[in-house]
Amino acid sequence: MNHELKIWSEYYKDIISKIKRFEIRKYDRNFQVGDQLILREFEPCKECNGGGKVVTSITTGNEEITECDCKKPHGKYTGNGCVTSVDYVLNGGQFGIEKDYCVMSITVVSSRKTYK
Ligand SMILES: [Zn+2]
After folding, report:
1. Is residue 25 classed as helix, strand or coil in its secondary structure?
2. Cα–Cα distance between 34 and 17 in angstroms, integer?
3. Under a CB-based contact definition with an 8 Å cutoff, are residues 45 and 74 in contact?
4. How far apart are the C-alpha atoms of 108 and 27, rounded to whole Å?
5. What confidence tens digit (pLDDT) does each residue in 51-100 have?
6. What's the predicted TM-score (pTM) here?
7. Which residues surround ligand 1, an ion (CB under 5 A)?
8. CB distance 68 to 74 below 8 Å
9. How do 62-67 and 22-26 pair as beta strands?
10. 56 CA to middle of ligand 1, Å?
11. Which of 76, 92, 115 is nearest to 23 (CA)?
């Protein structure tokens, strides 16, 4: 199965460079060994850091959370992308990893400048 995922630029670059060979993801997609991750480089909105929410400090110790002006997906795709294989899946709930997360070993299979 293929899983198309956003990946932030700083991590994308390290994956392409084959330095970063793991992914930690919320286990909401049934990731399995033999699957492929299609990672699309994404630059999150600088205001909300991709989350769509902005914390505004009104007075010290008093914060208000508001919607960011940017629209979904709260940033932009650069057009770069890569495909990786999933070589190992470690399920969370152990070793300090949250129960609904997993750690995957990945290998870059291919990458391209313009991903459609
Ligand atoms: Zn934003």
Report:
1. strand
2. 22
3. yes
4. 20
5. 999 988 777 777 888 999 999 999 999 999 999 999 999 999 999 999 99
6. 0.83
7. 45, 47-48, 68, 70, 74
8. yes
9. unpaired
10. 13
11. 92
